[in-house]
Write a structure and sequence with these properties.
46% of the residues lie in helices and 12% in strands. It is of the alpha/beta class. It has a 7-stranded parallel sheet with strand order 1-4-5-6-7-8-9. Strands 2-3 form a two-stranded antiparallel ribbon. Helix 4 crosses helix 6, helix 7 packs across helix 8 and helix 13 packs parallel to helix 14. The longest helix has 21 residues. It binds coproporphyrinogen III. Coproporphyrinogen III binds next to loops.
């Protein structure tokens, strides 16, 4: 598939940057909230037709250049017998089994592959599959030990290979919490496991994006992974990050999710500044520094996509 998003990932010249947003399919959309009123989060994630429908919502409504599969990084814990509990009001919780369990990835998470296959029939844009970084997943499982990090890494590789076989066009690894570690801890608890995953997926040729919160503190460590792209949050300007990251690695980010909420004149100013600073620079994918927040006005998202799409590099 040739598309703006895949071209930008390869750092090829494009007429404008592609745009998609982390958490683009979610609670800020009334259509999502309507579905959610009738189903639990786990039901939505675990029913391929519903997961596919939600994945498509922001594509059909706003015209993003890429879709991200509607799922969650925490479904991987089901391989180890954990149950996702998202009863309203309690936030998301992982309930461990009474004894250690280790199930085959393919069978346990086949609903994810089914959703991918359904989407790939007629999705007009590339589909991004994803997983959590082992450190972040282990933190939610409350199993932060080297043995568990190895187990989670092994399961994650099988999980991503399953997504690739089902047809995803790119993968993003969300190691949301790893970027907040102190440097020596980051090198010990996060980086080696990310490296194992990136190296294991490299032979498939699938483009891989690595995202951490606080990623700007670990630019050189993340570059050492040699991913296809790095996702950045808000601490540094993209134009400076572009100079720190070798030109064969694409960069993705980093409008503030708070700014996206408005007011519109401020949003316009920030978006124009980012687009102007990055104009004509290859290997740039427009995104937020973190996920879309639930109280973001739909109109602002619509305006943003239109604005990025209206830009054509001469
Ligand atoms: O980006 C997308 O639109 C694709 C789907 C997606 C979700 N979660 C759906 C979701 C993705 C890529 C994620 C990643 C994820 N999940 C991360 C990494 C990115 C990040 O935000 O840092 C993490 C840490 C999680 C774990 C998780 N899932 C938490 C802590 C929560 C509860 C808090 C919250 O943000 O809502 C979730 C629930 C969740 N995952 C929702 C959605 C749409 C909200 C569900 C609802 O309230 O209906």
């Amino acid at each position: 598939m040739s598309s703006l998003f895949l071209k930008a990932l390869r750092c090829e010249e494009v007429l404008r940057p592609p745009v998609w947003l982390m958490r683009q399919a979610g609670r800020y959309m009334p259509e999502y909230r309507k579905l959610r009123a009738h189903h639990s989060f786990r039901e939505l994630v675990g029913t391929p037709a519903l997961a596919a429908e939600i994945t498509r919502l922001p594509i059909d409504h706003f015209g993003f250049d890429a879709a991200i599969l509607f799922s969650d990084i925490l479904v991987l814990a089901e391989v180890f017998g954990y149950r996702i509990d998202f009863s309203d009001g309690k936030g998301i919780q992982l309930v461990p089994p009474s004894q250690e369990e280790n199930h085959p990835v393919e069978g346990t998470l086949s609903y994810v592959a089914d959703a991918v296959r359904l989407l790939k029939k007629d999705l007009p844009v590339p589909l991004i599959g994803f997983c959590g970084g082992p450190y972040t997943v282990a933190k939610y499982m409350k199993t932060l030990t080297p043995i568990w990090l190895d187990r989670i890494t092994t399961a994650t590789i099988a999980y991503l290979q399953m997504q690739v076989a089902a047809g995803v066009d790119a993968i993003q690894i969300f190691d949301s919490w790893a970027g907040l570690l102190e440097p020596s801890d980051f090198r010990e608890w996060a980086l080696p496991y990310l490296k194992t995953i990136v190296d294991a997926l490299r032979p498939t040729g699938i483009p891989l994006i690595v995202f951490c919160r606080g990623s700007c503190r670990y630019v050189q460590e993340l570059v050492s992974l040699q991913p296809t792209a790095l996702g950045f949050d808000r601490e540094k300007e993209m134009v400076h990050l572009r100079k720190e990251v070798p030109s064969n690695i694409a960069i993705q980010g980093n409008l503030s999710p708070t700014i996206l909420k408005g007011p519109l004149p401020l949003l316009q100013k920030e978006v124009d500044a980012l687009l102007t600073a990055m104009q004509g620079i290859p290997g740039f994918i427009f995104n937020l520094g973190h996920g879309v927040e639930p109280d973001t006005p739909v109109e602002n998202v619509r305006w943003l996509v239109k604005q990025v799409k209206s830009l054509t590099i001469k």
